[in-house]
Each structure stands twice: as C-alpha cells, then as structure tokens.
Amino acid sequence: MILHADMDAFYASVEIRDRPELASRPVAVGGPARSRGVISAANYVARRYGVRSAMPTVTARKLCPQLVLLPGRMARYVEVSAQIRAIFHRYTPLVEPLSLDEAFLDVTASEKLFGTAVAIGKRIKDEIRNELGLTVSIGIASNKFVAKIASDIEKPDGFVYVGAGQVQAFLDPLPVERIWGVGKVTAGALHRLGIKTIAQLRRQSLPAMQELFGQHGAHLWELAHGRDARHVIPDQDARSLSHETTFAQDIEDSEVLLARLLELTEQVAMRLRRQHLKSRTVSLKIRFYDFSTLTRALTLDVATDNTRDLWQAVRDVFETRLPRPLPPVRLIGMGVSGFDNESEATAQGDLFAPPCAEMPVPTAIDAVTDTVNERFGARTLRRARILRGNDPAGKKS
Amino acid sequence: MKFSILREDILKPLQTISGVIERRQTMPILSNILLNLQGDEMTMTATDLEVELITRFKIGGSPTSGSTTVPARKFADICRTLPDGATLEVQLDGDRAKIKSGRSRFTLSTLSADDYPAIKGGDKVSELSLSEQDLKRIINKTQFSMAQQDVRYYINGLLLEVTRDRLCAVATDGHRMSMCETGADANQDEKMQFIVPRKGILELARLLKDTEQSVRLRFGSNHLRVEMDDIQFTTKLIDGKFPDYERVIPLNVSNKVTGNTESLKQTLIRTSILSNEKYRGIRIVLSPDSLQAVAHNPEMEEAEETVAVDYKGDNLEIGFNVSYIIDALNAVESEDVEMCFGDANSSCLVLPKNADRYKYVIMPMRL
C-alpha cells in the first residue's frame, strides 16, 4: 500500500504554530507586493478570500486587504520538514519526498510490524499533530496516483483510504484535471472532445487516446483506470534527478526555452549538491506541440555538481541535438543521472588544478547561491538569464 | 546530371567520405552527400557541419554536368550490395535520382545542391607541409589522451602547435597528457596554436596513410584544411585557449625507473584485471631495482606482481589509474622505457629510452 502525505498550507501553518495569535487571521507567506512577489503558501482563512499559492501578492492584497503577509523562513521549513520525515521513517525506509511538505511512503512491508496501512496512516497523522502541532492530509491506496488524489480530496486535515475494490468508484466522478499530467492544454483538448470526467476518459478506447495524444494519451488512459506502476523511490537511492515544466502555451522562442532550461538546471543542481552527489550524464527532454517527445543525453568525462558545468552541457545539447527549425514546445525538462559520490570522483589528480586549496569560482558561486536560497527561500538568488524568459503567457509547473 | 560508373570506382570514395555523416541528424540535408559533376570531374562532399570531406575523381564516357544531393547511407548501401563489376547509370530526373544497374532500378529522393552547407575555407593564418606518415604518427602518439566531453571544451580536441621548423601535438583530459613533435616546414617565426576538435582528429587519423608523400596543412582563423592525394579534409577549430602544457611537465624527477617496456606493460595489464572496474586504481610500490603493482576491487579480490627494473631512488608508493599508464606504454616503441616519479602526489613522466620526441605525463590518484 502507498501512502501520500501532504502537509496542509505548510509554510503558513509553521508560521501560525510559531505565532499562535495569528491563527484566526488570514495569513500568507510570500514576497512583498512592491517587488512583484508571489504567495508561496496561504492558510485556510486566507484561502476563503480566494488567496492561492503562486498568486502575485498584489492580487492577494486586493482580494484580502487584511491579509497578514509574512516573509518566508526557508531554513525553518527545512528544519520542520526534516522532523516530519523522521516521523515517516519510523514506519518505513521507503520514503520519497516530493518537496518539503509532501512525500510518498510505501508501507506494504510495514503492515506486519505496525498494523494495516490505515492504522499506520492514523498514527503518522497523530504523531505529526501531537509532536509538531501541524496537520497533514493523508491518502492511502494501492498506487501513487490514487493515493495522491486521495490525500487532496478532503484537505485540510483529510484522511482518505481507497481500497482495492473502490478505486474505480472513487476516480470515476472526478474531473479529468485531477489527473497528474493533465494541465490546462490537455484539459482543454479533452473538454472539446466532451471528456470531462475520469469515467468518460476511461471509456475511450486506448487506440483513440494514442491517436490523439500519443504516448501521453496511453499514460492518461492507464491512470484513468487507476493503474500506475511507479514505485516509491527513496531519495537517497535515486538513480536520477529531474525537473520539467509544461507551458500554458506552446513556446517557439529559443530565448524563453533556454531561460526555463536554466531555471530547471539550477533546481536540479541544487538538489544534487544537497545530496552530496555528482553526476556524469545530463539529459534534455522536449515534448513538442504534437506530443512527440525527444530525450537527448550527454555523458561528461568527469562527474560534476556545478550549475555552470551542467548548464553548459544541457545548453550544448539544446543547441546542437534538436531538430531545426524547432517546432513549438509544450514541455521542457532537464535531468541528471550516472552518479558518482564525491570522494571517489575527486580521487584522481588534476593536471591543471588551481594552485593551493583555493575553491574554483563556479563552486564558490554555487555555495553562495545555495546558502542564500536555503535561508531566504528558493529562487531568491538566480542567474539573470532566467529573467529573459519571463514569457507573458505564464507557465504552470 | 547523368553519368555511368563502375561500382568499384564509386564505392571506395563514397565509403571514405560517408563516415563523417552522423546517424542522427538535426537537419535532413546533413544525411545526404553532395554530388557535383562538371565536365568529366566528379566532386563528392560529406559534412556534419564540423568536419567536411571532399573527394574528386574522373568520370569516363560522356557524362552530363549537374549537381544534387542524395541520402548517403542508402546510396552507399546500394553501391555496396550490387555485384562486383556492375556498372551504375545515375541520372537526375526532376527531384529524383534514378540508378540503373543490370536489372536493378532505384529511385532516390534528393535535396537541392544549393542548400548543402559548406565550411568556409576563407583566410589563411599559417601553412606547413610534412610527410603523411609523420602527421599520422604525431596524431596516433597523442590522440588517446584527448578529453571526450569535458566541460573545458578546449581540451576536447588536439592542440597543434606550429613553429618555424616543427609541429607539436598535445592532448590532455586533465588527468594525463600526451605530447609528440616532428619536424615540419612552416616558414614562420611566430609560435601559433590551433585546437582541432576530437571528431576531426579521429576522422583525419582514419584518412592518413603511411606514405612519405607530402601533405599540406592550412590553418585559417577558425578552420584547418588538409590536402591529401585525392581528398580534401576541412574541420572547424575549437575557439579557446589550450592550457599551458609546458607548465605541467614535471622537472623534479629524481626517482627514475628504467625497465623493459613490454614486461612492464604485461605486468600492468594482468594486475589491472582486479582493479576497480570504474576507477581503475592500482598502487605502484617502488623499492631498489623493483616495481610492484598491486590492485584491489570492491569484491575484495587482489592482484600483485613484481617486475625487475633499474631503480636507485627512494622507496615510494603511489596510486594511478592503470589505464593511463597502459595507454602510454602502448604508444612507446622503444624496447626500454623510462618512468620518472617525484613523490606520491606528483605526476609521473613516461619517456621512450631513445631520442624519439614524444612523452606522457600522468597524474596520480589518491587510493
């Protein structure tokens, strides 16, 4: 059984727990309106006014003038996240964190020790409430896809178990937008075909879905049947790390694509460094407007965790290994694999190493960037080129 | 365009140049070769935008001039699989190329010859001549140390350094370095450096033969052109500054080992079997008149072998990636070899025990 745990309004909840007098007021964590900040989390009081995460702070202020806006304290959230993860690890080593406030747990083998998945889920929920003063929503099902939807359906403080025989009845009435991988564009295309619910999607034939959406269509069709074979991959055993982004509108401008790619590279590189890994293989994934998908990889001679090196490699792949002229792009992704751990990778002497123990410039830049971003929030310090890609159409991730 | 040709007469030039064409293309025309027939002279061109190969040969009979591009692999496969002694009749018909031979008929798609990309020859900043075999030799003595995909893009190639009377090749991947020089007639006083990309070097090495015929190297500001007997090779150059290679040639090499090249190499090859497959580390232990090689792997298997050498230096233990030493010894032609060590953190210099002008520098590994 797979358990999906998703903290409720995590950043905001941590702030309110630390300052209980705010509990009854609309609270959001985010950047200030004057510097074009966005909301990164809002409590449920604020959500009643329509405040949502990823919303510009200016808009949030208009919707809710009495909003209490707090600056993010990333170091604090990282610390609390580690405490939550420690609770997960009491029940299984198979914990796959998706972000600071969200994780999958495979509790199949834990049932003998701790009771049923439902009992484990209840204990985790209680321990997080009693020990940390926070609430979590939990979904339990036989696979990741259903578990993730289940955790979301009764938020906040939800607890939903979907037994093997109930999967179809659970999924059928839900709108197709609930499916992972159905964003605005796909949803629009499905709606035009009269497909609004998961039941309607499930009743399409597989060949028809493949015809319309290619490989992606087949995947959605499988999910609509409640089938998802992906395993829970504990972060420390990960064989690869990747980030990708789907655009709200297809993009043809290489400048915009490169800016997005750089942003993804910064995120992947930071995760790599956080796990003390170095990677040799860099891959670029592109999905075109017609859903055809390309993956191009490049293996470096020496493993690296420098953002600069990884960026240089993936940019080279982008510039030399894609069809020209480039068709409109709906998704771009960047990934790394082929990990070496640091000590083995650096055992070989370098002929051109800088004299004495001076830190190479790219490493120093990464160290500063990571420190700033961990302290003041992701994306506080970024490479300027990313700003060039601020496409007016906006994006969803 | 229309011509007839004997299978054997077109197959060899076709195979010689079509090696440069990449399987995976970003532009459809790059999987084609350019055929340009003027009078009785045929010019065939293949390119991947980085390396360009042009071959010229005469066409007998009474051909009709013209030009087009056809899919390289398919055209070469057709020629290859036709029987020995077959005659091909090739004719451009609209946007199709028709090939007839005996009772076989093929119609190939074409793309316009006008769209075929050419590497601009342009300017000339340096020029020299040397024998084909000397050029082949300095490439073969060094190319194995080139980086493949290093983030320092300027080492993913071979440095060619031109001075008045000599041409020097240097390759490095940051862990080891190869150098070889030869006499050449350059007629210039200034020392100039050019970095030829890896693919260009491998392609050039494939084309060069062991002859004493003179070949001409012409360097432009961003390309190198080599004129051989029946083939013209052009490659782009890497725009970058090669590391200061002279700085890393060790000077303080008090600990000198002299040994038989072949027996040292065989010892290391045997020992390497039980080194870590990925990192290839071995330990070299030096004591008076003996060199011991020791390897372990993660399965806790172990290899150990001692070979008699001439050594009067300090007792020393030092780790290396064994592949780097084997590569260097493979390139050494003299019966005896000299390996010069400093201390356990310093690079090792490998030299042939004769007057030959090549050497190898290898950085150690912490074990």
What would you say this structure looks like, in words?
The complex is a heterodimer of chains A (397) and B (367). By secondary structure, chain A is an alpha+beta fold. Chain A has helices spanning 10-18, 44-48, 57-63, 74-89, 111-114, 117-132, 144-153, 167-171, 184-192, 198-202, 206-224, 254-274, 307-320, 342-345, 361-376, 385-388, and strands at residues 2-7, 27-30, 39-42, 68-70, 95-99, 102-106, 136-141, 159-161, 240-251, 277-288, 293-304, 329-341, 395-396. Helix content of chain A is 41%, strand content 22%. In chain A, the strands form three sheets. A five-stranded mixed sheet of chain A has the order 5-6-1-7-8. A five-stranded antiparallel sheet of chain A has the order 11-10-12-9-13. A three-stranded mixed sheet of chain A has the order 3-2-4. In chain A, helix 4 (74-89) crosses helix 15. The longest helix of chain A is centred in the middle third of the chain and has 21 residues, at 254-274. Chain B is built from six helices and 25 strands. Chain B is α+β, with helices and mostly antiparallel strands. Chain B folds into three domains: 2-115, DNA Polymerase III, subunit A, domain 2 (DNA Polymerase III, Chain A, domain 2, Roll); 124-246, DNA Polymerase III, subunit A, domain 2 (DNA Polymerase III, Chain A, domain 2); 249-362, DNA Polymerase III, Chain A, domain 2 (Roll), CATH 3.10.150.10. In chain B, 17% of the residues lie in helices and 42% in strands. Chain B has helices at 7-18, 72-81, 132-140, 198-207, 261-272, 322-331, and strands at 2-6, 32-38, 41-47, 51-58, 66-71, 87-93, 96-101, 104-109, 126-131, 157-163, 166-172, 176-183, 192-197, 214-219, 223-227, 231-236, 255-260, 281-287, 290-296, 302-308, 310-311, 316-321, 336-341, 348-352, 358-362. The chains are: A alpha+beta (397), B alpha+beta (367). The A-B interface holds A 298-302, 304, 306, 308-309, 312-313, 320-324, 344, 347-352 and B 24, 26-27, 147-151, 153, 172-177, 243, 248, 278-279, 281, 319, 321, 345, 347, 361, 363-367.
